[in-house]
Amino acid sequence: MGESTGPAVMALGALPSLVAAGSLVWAVACRRAAVRRRLGRLALPTAVCAGLSLITSFAPLRAGSGWKLAEAALLLLLVAVVTRWSRLPHLVWALPPAALAVTLWPLALVTGESFLESVGIGAFWFLPVAAAAASGAYPRRQELRRRRAVAEARAAQRLQLSRDLHDFVAHDISGIVVQAQAARFVAAADPSHAVIALERIEKAGLSALAAMDRTVRMLHGPETAATEPLPDLSQLHVLVENFTLAGAAEAHLDLPRPVTERLTREAGSVAYRTVVEGLTNIRRHAPHASRVTVAFSPTATTVEIRITNDRGAGPSAGRVTRGGGLGLPALTEHARALGGSLAAGPHGDGGWQLTAVLPVAPAEEKTS
Question: What is the Cα Rg of the chain in Å?
Fold first, then answer.
């Protein structure tokens, strides 16, 4: 069965090419915003063109090889487009018939070849199919990786925002609550103490607003967030002093000078957050504590941080420490990421202790 050139045969041979070309023209002949959506809908036209190509390739009356070459070129273009833009379920039934149509069409034009020669011809024509699929799969994979990276970055940013809100805003708001409670009880008997409490409430409120402003600036992009300095050990004295002024507990800070020189910037930030978390939990869950100690103990390779209160950390505090609070689990992750550890548990007679161990900076980092 050789090639035929009658009008009906020519029309039949041109049909797959016309369908493929018409599908591509339909996809791009629209507004730019709709092109990508239409390109994603070419899976069905691709399968139809592949089926017509297979029918016309092995029909009793066949068109000339020129039409088949045009079909193969258009099908390869459709393979690349469908691989790039169509949904994965559509690729399952669109790509196999297109690959068969391009691979098998030369076999209908040759006769007398052995089985191995036919396999070689099919394998040769499968190479452009693989290349077309790869040309569409590579940008698709890059787009998926970009979207995944954006999603991971957004998730990390949301986590960081929640940690900042928990660590700093919750600390200041808990101080406001304590001062408001104190002012309510002393307002009638000693208005001067109520005025002092109001001044401390104002100061804590301004600090909370500053923390929220810092958090909001993080939403505007990494450039803005990068310019915001992280809290570090230099602010601990003010933090502990404000804690003492805000409540009934007297807090003491033991911070040897070598500690601030041996901790890295990131470790210093984690240490500051650990102290904030410990003091906030004491204020919320051990309001009757009378003495709080924040002690830094340096060793050869680590710095140990202990936040201890003498009493008032009852069963409720234990449940918070082991339960679903956001502060301690997040701080534990931070400490482990730096190569340290964090633990909390009962201490002494009804007290509670939060302990963190952070590695010190390497010698070459300290001297740089």
Answer: 36
Nearest to 317 by CA among 283, 343, 342: 283
- Between CA 58 and CA 302 the distance in angstroms is 78
Q: What angle do CA 85, 89, 91 make, to 5 degrees?
A: 55
Strands (E), 84-133: none
Q: What is the pLDDT of residues 47-92, one digit of tens each?
A: 888 888 888 777 655 555 667 788 888 899 999 999 999 888 888 8
Query: Residue 359 pairs with which residues in a beta bridge?
Result: 302
The closest alpha carbon to 21, from 87, 77, 90, belongs to 77
Strand, helix or coil for residue 31: coil
Beta carbons within 8 Å of 320's beta carbon, 6+ residues apart? 281, 285
Side-chain half-sphere of 114: how many Cα atoms within 13 Å? 2
Q: How far apart (Å, rounded) are the C-alpha atoms in residues 82 and 42? A: 6
**pLDDT at residue number 318:** 37
Q: What is residue 80's predicted lDDT score, i.e. its pLDDT?
A: 92
pTM over 0.90: no
Query: How deeply is 223 buried, as exposed, middle or buried, from its count of CB atoms within 10 A (0-12, 13-18, 19+)?
Result: exposed
CA separation for the pair 318, 344 (Å, rounded): 9
Backbone angles phi, psi at 62, to 5 degrees: -120, 150
291-298/250-254 β-pairing: parallel
Q: How many helices, marked H, and strands, marked E, lie in the chain?
A: 15, 5
CA–chain centroid gap for 13, Å, is: 52
| DSSP string covering 327-360 | HHHHHHHHHHHTT-EEEEEEETTTEEEEEEEEEP
- Alpha-carbon distance 136 to 98, whole Å? 14
How far apart (Å, rounded) are the C-alpha atoms in residues 151 and 139? 18
- Phi (first) and psi of residue 137, to 5 degrees: -75, -35
What is the rounded distance in angstroms from the CA atom of residue 160 to the CA atom of residue 178?
Answer: 27
pLDDT in tens, 159-170: 767 776 666 677
The one-letter amino acid code at 97 reads: P
- As a whole number, the mean pLDDT across the chain is 78
